[in-house]
Amino acid sequence: PIRFVVPFAAGVSPDVVARIISEPLSRALGQPVVVDNRAGAAGIIGADIAAKSPADGYTIFMTVNSIMGVNPNVYTKLPYDTFRDFTPITQVATVPYVLITGPKQPYNSLAELIEKAKAKPKSIEYGSLGVGSGPHVVMEMMNNQAKIEMMHVPYKGSPLQDVLAGQIPLAFEPATTAIPLVKTGKAKALAITSPKRSHALPDVPAVAELLPGYDGDGWQGIYAPAKTPKNIVDRYNLEIAKILKNPETQKKLDDLGLIAVGSSVADFNRVSRAEFEKWGKIAKANNIRVEN
Asked: Of 148, 152, 107, which is closest to residue 128 (Cα–Cα)?
């Protein structure tokens, strides 16, 4: 069997996507593809297991930009290296974040939020999944471009329930969970991190409309251990890209608030390196470090 390592618990977005891909991939390759959830430590546990697996084509790794592009720029010690230990297969999807606030909070637009933050630096708090997490770095990138300062409150898990209850005013939340909350009125959406508006939330502006050039979308992608033979990597790329171009798969991802990609190996390699450099600059500019 092919082991599909997922560094998250069952039921979260990358795991759901891995399971959407695994069944048609198994059919295409004529072998079972087994999802192996290895959650914990900001994805480091799963990444370490995948990195140390034999490079024989029987292990692939479903991961996200925070594990490959942010962690190496934030953690003082990591048991894996994005470029030394992995070879890219394909970018699976982009994952927009939505800036949400509770329904009773006074903020009704991003412009209003920025104006209030400028008037009183560090007076507005925001929550995140923890220091160096995707929601933390995308918020700091927005703050840098807007020339504002807000107070970061790192959580050990998701700050979502506290945002909905009004205990903390703001957080960037992945579109997968944010879209249903906005549509049912349980949260207000101020902006989305994609360069353009989402058709799922057409009334919610992109941050880039106010801060040109801003692009804070996360992504999901598949890698293999380094030194996996090129012909095997190319076969995976071909089959997974086919799956991602299938309208049925695209609809499933669209329903999760994700945008299917299915890039070439070379394109995904470029994305991996560009994202690594982008988040490295943000981490350095904001002194985001985790001593471990």
From this structure: 152
